[in-house]
Automatic annotation (TrEMBL):
Name of the molecule in the record: YqgE/AlgH family protein
Entry similarity comment: Belongs to the UPF0301 (AlgH) family.
Species of origin: Mucilaginibacter angelicae
Domain of life: Bacteria
Pfam families cross-referenced by the UniProt entry: DUF179
InterPro entries for this protein: AlgH-like
Length: 187
C-alpha cells in the first residue's frame, strides 16, 4: 500500500501518478470532511476557466482564479482560507487552515483588496465519496495520504507543479514517482 497514513479531515490526497480519470489526474485534494458517512474535499491544483468575477460579478477583485473543486455540484462555490482573524465562522480543518466562513465578510475583503489569492482559494464544486469508497480507493493505491504539508504551498498559483512538489516533499520513498510521465506508454 502506497499510503501508511489514514485519511482524515485536514489531510491531503495525492493521486497516483498514472490515474487516468480526468477529474483527478495529477491532483492534490484537501479533505474537509472524513467520517463513516463519507468524505469531501477540494482539488487544489485544477484551475477552472473562470475567474471570481465570472461567478460573482458584484466582487470588484475579479482576477482571482476559481478552481475545479471536483465533479460534484459544480454550480456551488466553496472556499478555504488562512485568515481566521478576518473571516468569522470558518471550520479549522488543519492547523491554520479553514473551510468556509462568513461569505459577506469574504466579499467585502476581496472587493477591497484586503484578501488575496495567497490567503484564500475558491472552488466550483467539490470531490465527494460515499461511505467506504475513499478507503477502498486508498487500499487500491489510487491515493497517497499525507498530513505533512506547508499551508503556503496550498495557496500557490503554480498549480501545475503542486502535485510534483507535494510528492517530493513526502521524502525518498515517494520522490521517484514525481518524475514518472503522465502517460506510462511514453516511458
Amino acid at each position: 500500500m502506497l499510503s501508511p497514513i489514514a485519511a482524515a479531515a485536514g489531510h491531503l490526497l495525492i493521486s497516483e501518478p498514472f490515474m487516468m480519470d480526468p477529474n483527478f489526474k495529477r491532483s492534490v485534494i484537501i479533505l474537509t470532511e472524513y467520517s463513516e458517512d463519507g468524505a469531501m474535499g477540494f482539488i487544489l491544483n485544477h484551475q477552472s476557466e473562470y475567474l471570481l468575477g465570472d461567478v460573482l460579478p458584484d466582487v470588484s477583485y475579479s482576477e482571482m482564479p476559481v478552481y475545479e473543486g471536483g465533479p460534484v455540484a459544480k454550480n456551488t462555490l466553496h472556499f478555504i482560507h488562512c485568515a481566521p482573524d478576518r473571516i468569522d465562522g470558518g471550520i479549522e480543518i488543519a492547523d491554520g487552515l479553514y473551510w468556509g466562513g462568513d461569505f459577506d465578510q469574504v466579499k467585502h475583503l476581496v472587493s477591497n483588496y484586503l484578501l488575496g489569492p495567497d490567503e484564500i482559494k475558491f472552488f466550483a464544486g467539490y470531490s465527494g465519496w460515499i461511505p467506504q469508497q475513499l478507503d477502498e480507493e486508498i487500499k487500491e493505491d489510487s491515493w497517497i495520504v499525507t498530513n505533512k504539508f506547508d499551508i503556503e504551498a496550498l495557496f500557490t498559483l503554480d498549480e501545475q507543479n503542486l502535485w510534483r512538489q507535494v510528492v517530493i516533499s513526502l521524502g525518498q520513498r515517494y520522490a521517484h514517482i514525481a518524475n514518472f510521465p503522465e502517460n506510462p506508454a511514453l516511458n
